[in-house]
Amino acid sequence: MQKQKSLLGFLILVLGFVLLYSCEKVTLREPPPPVIVDSVKFSVVIKPIFSSCTGCHKAGIQTPDLKDNPYQALIDGNYVDVAHPSQSVLYNHLTTNTAHISRATAEQKAQILAWITQGAKNN
Q: Which pairs with CB-CB distance under 8 Å and at least 24 residues apart come from 68-77?
């Protein structure tokens, strides 16, 4: 009787491990942004994207300060990495921070990534 209980306990333990480690973690990700091939100008395309952010992202409230000089704030704060555009703090923040994911459209995220890829120029 004792052997049967031990065997049953062992089988339950093995079954538990099998079930636990056979589960697959599903992560929902948004689709990749569309590819932008045209030249992206900061003053025309990127700066207007941040117009809705200037209420919170201004001096003394939240960094970076996107109200007065958004280009300098992004560059001086090391928010863009032209060597590794998709790893830029700015791009990652817009694509992974739940507070910002819904605010920027897929097109805007693609434009920001393209701007960084193109050298993040102040034009």
A: 71/42, 71/47, 71/122, 74/120, 75/120, 75/122
